[in-house]
Design goal:
The protein contains four helices and six strands, in the order E-E-H-H-H-E-E-E-E-H. It is an alpha+beta fold. The strands form two sheets. It has a four-stranded antiparallel sheet, with helices on one face. A two-stranded antiparallel ribbon has the order 1-2. The longest helix has 26 residues. The radius of gyration is 21 Å and the shape is globular.
Length: about 210
């Protein structure tokens, strides 16, 4: 019989042990995600990945166009960096080329950062509109360091609904999804996220009327 694990009520301080993330196999051959709940990055990336997987496995088509665009910009920026470094002519003959590559790298990197800040806001997922709908929605996670409280935030992609009054959030302690050893329980999280999705749908319908 698999050993029952108690869910954590508080977060282990990040300084108490080294952040670590590993994947183990349990007796039922299910992948177990385990790490240090005091590690902010481990908790946030795990929850973000769970959100993305839930939507992918469900009936929500994902809009990956922005993600793909950022990847293309990133590759092009790296290409300019490599060109400046390995162009087959000695310095200072290539100073003009190096200057051009540095400027292009800075522009592309800044563009990607602005996209994160002002458009997708480092979104966990962006969806395409469902049938009979014109716009999808954006899902973000808000998780402050040194706390056990995390918020799932839904924002409509409708340009006319970018005001804060159309933003819906639902929060919870991470102790409901992670146990005291840092193991993540997707089923508990999926139940919470499904309820949050339903509440967001009702919320946005009422705001639209």
């Amino acid at each position: 019989m698999a050993k029952e694990k108690k869910l954590a009520n508080v977060v282990t301080p990040a300084s108490s042990q080294q952040p670590e993330k590993e994947v183990e196999e349990d007796k039922d051959d299910e992948k177990i995600i385990k790490g240090n709940t005091g590690d902010w990055n481990y908790v946030k990336t795990t929850v973000d990945a769970a959100i993305l997987k839930y939507l992918e496995d469900g009936s929500y088509p994902l809009d990956k166009s922005l993600m793909n665009l950022k990847l293309v910009l990133g590759y092009v920026a790296v290409g300019f960096g490599l060109l400046a470094q390995f162009y087959p002519k000695p310095w200072p003959e290539t100073w003009h080329l190096t200057l051009f590559c540095v400027i292009m790298y800075a522009i592309l990197s800044s563009t990607m950062q602005l996209m994160v800040w002002y458009y997708d806001m480092d979104a966990s997922a962006i969806t395409k509109p469902l049938k009979n709908e014109k716009y999808g929605f954006i899902v973000n996670t808000r998780y402050e360091r040194f706390t056990d409280f995390i918020e799932i935030v839904f924002t409509s992609k409708d340009p006319s609904k970018q005001d804060k009054k159309y933003e819906f959030s639902k929060g919870s302690s991470i102790g409901k999804w992670f146990d005291s050893e840092g193991v993540f329980y997707p089923k508990q999280f999926n139940g919470f996220f499904k309820k949050a999705l339903d509440e967001y749908s009702n919320f946005i319908s009422k705001r639209s009327n």
